[in-house]
Amino acid sequence: MNIDKTKPVMVTGATGYVAGWVVKRLLEEGLVVHAAIRQPENKEKTKYLDEIAANSPGSIKYFKADLLTPGAYAEAMQGCQVVFHTASPFFLDVKDAQKELIEPAKMGTRNVLEDVNKTESVKRVVLTSSCAAIYGDNRDLYNAPQQTLTEEVWNTSSSVEHQPYSYSKMLAEKEAWDICKEQDRWDLVTVNPSLVLGPGINPFGTSESFALIKQMGDGTFKMGTPNWAIGVIDVRDLAEAHLRCAFIPEAKGRYIISAQSSSFPHIASILREKFGKAYPFPKKSLPKAMVWLFGPIVNPGLSRKAISYNVNHPWKADNSKSKKELGMEYRPLQESLADFFQQMIDNGYFNKK
């Protein structure tokens, strides 16, 4: 599948954390970007991308589109050969998971891809999925091949009641593959990142990633942090993976995009080593029993079942497909965290303790 880079490309949710870096890389490559967002008239929302576009060989054009409105992306998609569908909610503390997570993720994917089916120019869709579509809890790895996540594995443990965010990502990706299989004009490539870290195009991003790293330095975890293992990926590397999935003709299927395995205590230790005693970084892992008892009280979005199934369980994924087929190289976690935390310092996130 060869893509003509003189044709425009469309990005859903273009002002988002991941999408912002995808747009930046597209503009650097000289492409015309059709940015589909809810409020194109809100210059406060678009100012970061506008500034990048003004200093890049590419150009950007905004289109008004809402994820839950059928046909909303038809105009933005006209003439595009590639569609990047990045827009999807990432909130862990929700009151109504069905309404706030699952319906927007699944219906939004369906709405975008139905417009793709009606737009003859589109040849490839790059979908931002997640490792959450592959697993729900760290405990799931015990049933994975060699206790390692691969692109062949699907999340079968999540539900509306348990890990609803992960459930929404799995349902949305399966919806995309089902729709793709019903036609033969365009192909689908999915990007499955682990926890995304690194500075934002918008330094005041609302992603859960910002909340986590802020809590590491603002005293929230001063007494310690759960020994919760996770995979991590720099947002800039993730953006590069999106471009390679779009423009490498042989790219196909799913790609786990994850630099390495880490954990909350590991992240805290890297930050502490880099930024010293100026911030109240956690210095120890909390006993699992304490996390189980008090975690849901401190964070209502965290269930005791999730704590039981994740704390003190390892995490491991195989990223070799991304290295072999996309040529991906991943920057070290130390760099991601240093750049991310420094951006927060520079933008007044913390009062030094």
From TrEMBL:
It comes from the Bacteria. Pfam families: Epimerase. It comes from Uabimicrobium amorphum. Residues 9-245 form the NAD-dependent epimerase/dehydratase domain. GO terms for molecular function: oxidoreductase activity, acting on the CH-OH group of donors, NAD or NADP as acceptor. Keywords: Oxidoreductase. This is Dihydroflavonol-4-reductase.
